[in-house]
Amino acid sequence: MVQAQLAEPVRHPVAPLRQVLCALQDPVRLEMVRRLHNAGRPVRCAELYDGINKSTATHHFNILRDAGIIEREPAEGHTHQRLRIEDVDDAIPGLLGSIVAQANRESEALS
Question: Which of 24, 33, 58, 63 has its CA 20 to 30 A from that of 79?
Fold first, then answer.
């Protein structure tokens, strides 16, 4: 019996700096990346946003994926998002760490 091969997910290269910054400039996408970074692991999609519907969240995930910042990872029958921190740091050293650190400071100030 021949097993069907599952297609590998498309892995976008990390985009140029301008596209990465444009992806991160939106407050919803920045919060998604902040939550992923702070979790330190792949996270179920629904845990990464509040106050928007699923189709809007999908739009934001697509922009982050096209910029090479995140990728999908199926687990436990659900889609999770994984932050590609190593890949982004290789392409643009220190960017995510700096942006997330500032986003965390601003989030704490609002709490």
Answer: 24
pTM, two decimals, is 0.88
Parallel/antiparallel/unpaired status of strands 43-44 and 70-75: unpaired
Domain 17-110: state its class: mainly alpha
Q: Domain locations in the chain?
A: 17-110
Burial 39-75 (b: 16+ CB within 10 A, else e): eeebbebeebbeeeeeeebeebbebbbebbbbbbeee
Q: What share of residues in the chain are helix, strand, coil (percent, to 5)?
A: 55, 15, 30
Say how many residues make up the chain. Answer: 111
